[in-house]
Amino acid sequence: MLSLMLASFLPLLLLCRISLCQYSSDQCSWKGSGLTHEGHTRDVEQVYLRCSQGSLEWLYPTGAIIVNLRPNTLSPAAARLSVCIKPSKDSTGTNIYLDRNGKLRLLLREQDQAEGKVHCFSIREGALFIEAVPHTDISRRITAFQYELVSDRLRAEAQSPGAPCQPCSDAEMLLAVCTNDFVARGTIKTVGPEEDHASVSVEISHLYRQKTHVFVSGGVRVRSWTGNIKMPLQCGVKSGQGEFLFTGTVRFGEAWMGCAPRYKDFLRLYHEAQLQGTNPCHVETD
Predict the structure, then answer these.
(1) Which of 37, 88, 179, 246 is buried most, with the most CB atoms less than 10 Å from its CB?
(2) Beta-carbon count within 10 A of 162 CB
(3) 116: phi > 0 → left, psi -120 to 50 → alpha, else beta; which?
(4) Which positions make up the signal peptide (predicted)?
């Protein structure tokens, strides 16, 4: 009896080892190897990713895979989402297409992926068809990217998250504090150029909110955080200019600056709006 149960269980175990166990526990990420395709390179494997953000890593790519990016919801609003992918700068070995009902449209060539730029498309445009480029040596080839699902309205911002260098209006500033991915009070320590943007190193004295851990705590006994916020080079931000209220968005694990008023200016604006009853949300102030 025991041998019969084991015999029926083993195929399921092998199936798990080949496919299901390549996913993260919540199917946000997938990691696979083309070495399992060597004997049947004409097969096309289906990959399903069901989170609002995650990653894919395909080692030694051979043949092709189809990546279906779908939110884990049946809401009609899901049809109005866009998919944004950001390839790793070491990503190589494949061309990436959009596959809609068997018709392919080139999205990223192998050499384009090294730029590490964000590319977005509507979820209605189809799945990702990732096809290996024939190489005599596949041992150095790895295709890897991060993905995010965003609303069609935020698609342009996801591709170019650096906000224009102009002051926010009072209404925009108050709304940013209520809706942005991070809100933090602190100072600018250093500013350094990185390719086409500036990286602003900040020290945070009061962390109101952060979507992901872009700011790192200094320890249990130290009520401060540090981190880096990106913004366009042309903004000309400088260090040592007083205390600010930093707000902004998080894209692919990176913080991008939105409205950043001086803290004293924000306090004045906030208290005026509080007296008028026009604040969109409550913020703790000292």
Answers:
(1) 246
(2) 20
(3) left
(4) 1-21
Within its chain, how far is the Cα of 266 from the centroid?
29
Q: What is the dihedral of CA 162, 163, 166, 168, to 10 degrees?
A: -140
Q: Which two tokens stand for residue 87?
A: 């390839």
Q: Please report whether residue 16 resides in a domain.
A: no
What is the three-state SS of 106-122? EEECHHHHHHCCCEEEE
Picking from 192, 210, 218, the residue whose alpha carbon sits closest to that of residue 254 is 210
CA dist 117 and 155 (Å) reads: 14
Same domain, 174 and 132: no
Q: What is the CATH number of the domain that holds 216?
A: 2.40.50.120
The packing angle between helices 263-276 and 170-179, to 10°, is: 90
Q: Are residues 96 and 183 in the same domain?
A: no
Count of alpha carbons within 13 Å of 27, Cβ hemisphere only? 13
Give all strands (DSSP E) within 24-63, no chain letters. 29-33, 44-49, 53-59
Which residue among 155, 187, 202 closes a domain?
A: 155
Q: What is the CATH number of the domain that holds 84?
A: 2.60.120
Q: Give the β-pairing of 64-69 and 44-49.
A: parallel
Average pLDDT for 187-214? 89
Q: What is the pTM of this model?
A: 0.74
Q: Mark whether 143 and 76 lie in a shared domain.
A: yes
Q: What is the pLDDT of residues 126-182, one digit of tens each?
A: 999 999 998 777 678 999 999 999 876 666 666 666 556 677 899 999 999 999 999
